[in-house]
Design a protein that fits this description.
alpha/beta; Spore Coat Polysaccharide Biosynthesis Protein SpsA, Chain A; 8-stranded mixed beta sheet; 8 strands; Nucleotide-diphossugar_trans; Glycosyltransf_2; glycosyltransferase activity; transferase
């Protein structure tokens, strides 16, 4: 099959040590009912067999454009693929998920019929590492722009990144992905785009979305939730007509410096309270500095809501000493009323 000089869709798939699930992910793209696309497969300095898998598929299908280079991180990879794309529409895809055959056809039809929308996602079929149903229920993603704005206000999920389809011009118009929002670059992008275009997800599932212990959202929960809280605050600043101090940052400052960054007292404490509540369910966060963040929140007189259950959860996570420390902290620190 020849490579289209001007494809309708550029598929952006960044790969880092993804050999375990990479072949099914690539095959699900090549099996799309709408075949007018190029597939950008960027290997971000993998040390496993990912690059060999990419070379093998590229030799079989000219629509695949391999980019093999040293490691620079996901955000740099996403922005590189935005710059390299030949199509006016970008379809995101992760190297561990499986796109359903009608995905591109359904999403491009929606964008063709709705020129006021810059991004369209879809619902997901959640699976585990073995392809079996994921036991935890996932909330339905907003199916209208108005519902998405409500989800922003309520701190709920917006669009599943690996099933997003975006107009390239609109994404470039807001500066692409921002390097400061490590592990939550998609949320920051949706929040910036929500002010300049309409976003929603289709009501039907169009991807099999994989969950497993080693995925980024599991391993880096504390960094991700901290960045997400700051991204939502930056969105609120813009909505209130104030300047966004994160706009030009290459890296977020430490949480204790947020009062200075946003120019008022109480920002750090409010962010810490929000992050602490979001981390209580994460085994990884409770094993790293997310646990210390939670204790700091309590020491500052933060809410005890749900913390007794967190003590029991820490025992379940195999962290009995941390459970004991948390129980003692709850006895010693009274919430501010």
């Amino acid at each position: 099959m020849t490579s289209p000089a001007s494809p309708r869709i550029s598929v952006a798939m960044s790969v880092y040590n993804g050999e375990r699930f990479l072949a099914p992910a690539i095959e699900s793209i090549l099996a799309q009912t709408l075949g007018d696309f190029e597939l950008l497969l960027l290997d971000d300095g993998s040390s496993d067999g990912s690059a060999d898998i990419i070379r093998s598929y590229a030799a079989q299908d000219a629509r695949i454009r391999p980019i093999l280079r040293e490691n620079r991180g996901l955000i740099a990879s996403l922005n590189e693929m935005l710059a390299e794309a030949r199509a006016p529409v970008i379809a995101r895809m992760d190297a561990d998920d499986i796109a359903l055959p009608e995905r591109f056809a359904r999403q491009i039809a929606f964008l063709d019929a709705h020129p006021d929308h810059g991004v369209v996602g879809a619902q997901t079929i959640d699976i585990d590492q073995n392809g079996q149903p994921w036991p935890h229920a996932t909330a339905t993603l907003p199916t209208s722009h108005e519902a998405l704005l409500d989800a922003i206000a309520q701190g709920q999920p917006l669009i599943c990144h690996p099933v997003a389809m975006m107009r390239r011009k609109v994404v470039l118009g807001v500066g692409g992905y921002h390097a400061a929002f490590h592990h939550c670059e998609d949320l920051d992008l949706w929040l910036r785009l929500a002010s300049v275009t309409r976003l929603c997800s289709l009501p039907e599932p169009l991807i099999r979305y994989r969950h497993y212990d080693q995925q980024v959202s599991t391993r880096h929960a504390t960094i991700q939730q901290t960045g997400a809280a700051v991204a939502r605050l930056a969105y609120a600043e813009r909505a209130a007509g104030r300047s966004d101090p994160t706009q030009a940052l290459a890296k977020l400052p430490p949480l204790d410096d947020m009062d200075a960054l946003f120019g008022r007292d109480g920002v750090t404490k409010a962010l810490r309270a929000q992050i602490a509540q979001s981390l209580r369910y994460s085994p990884a966060a409770m094993r790293d500095h997310g646990y210390d963040l939670l204790l700091r929140h309590l020491a500052e007189g933060g809410s005890h809501a749900g913390m007794r259950r967190t003590v029991a959860r820490l025992v379940k996570f195999g962290l009995p000493l941390r459970a004991l420390r948390l129980a003692l902290a709850l006895l010693c620190h009274r919430p501010v009323t």
